[in-house]
Amino acid sequence: MTTTHTRTGTRTGTRADAYAAELRAAARHVGRRRFLTATGAAAALAFAVNLPAAGTAAAAELDGRRITEDPFTLGVASGDPLPHSVLLWTRLAPRPYEPGGGLPAGTRVTVEWELAHDEHFRRGVRRGTATAHAEFDHTVHVEAVGLAPGRDHFYRFRAGAWTSPVGRTRTAPAPGARPAAVKFAAVSCQAYHDGYFTAHRHLADEDLDVVFHLGDYLYEYAVDATGGARAYTDRTLPDVFARETVTLEDYRLRYALYKSDPDLRAAHAAHPFAVTWDDHETENNYAGGTPENGVPPEEFLIRRAAAYRAYWENQPLRRPQRPTGPDMRLYRRLRFGRLAQFDILDTRQYRSDQAYGDGWQTPGPASEDPSRTMTGATQERWLLDGWQDSLATWNVVPQQVVFSERRNLPTDAYKVSMDSWDGYPASRQRVLAGARAAGIENLMVLTGDVHVAYGLDIKADFRDPASRTVGTEIVTTSVSSGRNGSERPANYDNLTRANPHLRFYDGRRGYVTVALTEDSARADFRTVTAVTTPGAPVATAASFVTEAGRPGLTPA
Question: Locate the PhoD-like phosphatase metallophosphatase domain: which residues (predicted)?
Fold first, then answer.
């Protein structure tokens, strides 16, 4: 979520104190130039996160029969479905709120996995074993292959005498298939300390092909003993969560806290996820190698390396996404037959620093500099080349921050968010020009970040309301961030008057589902009444349709 900050300040007080000694030690030993080499990155990462220098070969094998408590406390997940393959994930953590999850340090555990056509596992499909390494915090990533396209599969894991919950996943349609429909959901921004993940419980009950998580899966901020706005009276969270995440151990423990939530576990067990990060998985509003405030760049990159490693460990991601030091290629492409192509972007790792110190500012020469980039040149070219090769009816771009122009006032004195694509208008225009050159007729951008739901028409020229509509942007609200929210936030009138291409605005919590067919796309904005108390009902706040070949949202 965008917040105002400057790039010239320094950390003071408890935030500075939170930086662990190993981060500063690594920064002293490894300069920025050395860090950005492969050898330097490995050395810095070893300093920062205490990884075993000899790798996993020397790790002792822990007999699963010696695990005396349920190790599957964080559930199961699947992700990045392909026509003949899906990624299966779990983590062994009998005591998830302890460093190492309660397993002996430096050990590895053999885990069995099983995949079937039915939830009772009478019709088996594939099975095998995988190793849960201490190096990766005893997480397991299984790339199950040789599967039938476009169908449900059920999976589970075993370690010793313990069996995991059963998960359901679904492979993508065959490459040349023309499925009648593809239905997906988008979610984002789930601050544990702001409320319950009720939206995920309802999401688990939807019939979906895939869920796109658009970032802020966790927040780096401290969580107090009562869980913040959750106001627990039946439990006390340990002090390890009452500090900002900066080290690998911090991030790993924070994922354990989030994944211990039963509603989030239910959503992961029900659907395959395709994830991408925003800022809070590392630090608020960072830009590339530039931190939020005045931390030395080499120190921030060591923190970024820890954050990226913990992210990969705790998400259903494939081997190509595994990070090397502070670098991780998260942008990637999923195809669902010839109906939909999903180009998943990373708008944090490669972007130029926010102009004018970030926040809401008057646009000017600095923000409009043609050299500024949201995606970096390599990712931008990958996206545009992918559109040139696309055979899909719908080209969908799951990404993080608002793509369409968003003026805060209906006057000439308006400001825009420097953290969104408004702070990178030349980058946005290059993307739109690439879509036009590739003949993309049905462009849909999926967005998170802002803790509200928007439906927007993407204009060829946002300065001219009468200009051609070239695509649709669907912005999902937060799962919990911002607490309960309201149907009409305080800036509702100003924002809707200032942006005639804004067709829908709602400030409550929830998620969005989108159903694609050859003829149309239907978006249903789903909201819950509250997140500061558990168990709130869900309802559809509004539904919109965009017809194939005729971009623009109309009420359903």
Answer: 184-525
Q: What are the Cα distances from residue 47, in Å, to 35, 50, 58, 477?
A: 11, 6, 19, 38
Structure tokens at 508: 């409550």
H/E run at residue 547: strand 538-547
Rounded to 5 degrees, what are φ and ψ at 113?
A: -130, 155
| 233 phi and psi angles, rounded to 5 deg | -120, -10
The first and second tokens of residue 15, run together, are 């935030």
Question: Mind listing the pLDDT tens digit for each residue in 323-356?
Answer: 998 999 999 999 999 999 999 999 999 999 999 9
Q: Which residues make beta-bridge pairs with 213?
A: 187, 275
What would the DSSP string read from start to end of 322-339? Answer: --BTTB----EEEEETTT
Region of 541 (left: φ > 0; alpha: ψ -120 to 50; beta: rest) is alpha
Residue 75's alpha-carbon distances to 70, 189, 265, 416, in angstroms, are 11, 20, 6, 41
Q: pLDDT band at residue 189, thresholds of 50, 70 and 90? A: very high
| pTM of the predicted protein model | 0.93
Contact 212, 511 (CB under 8 A): no
- Dist CA 270 CA 203 (whole Å): 9
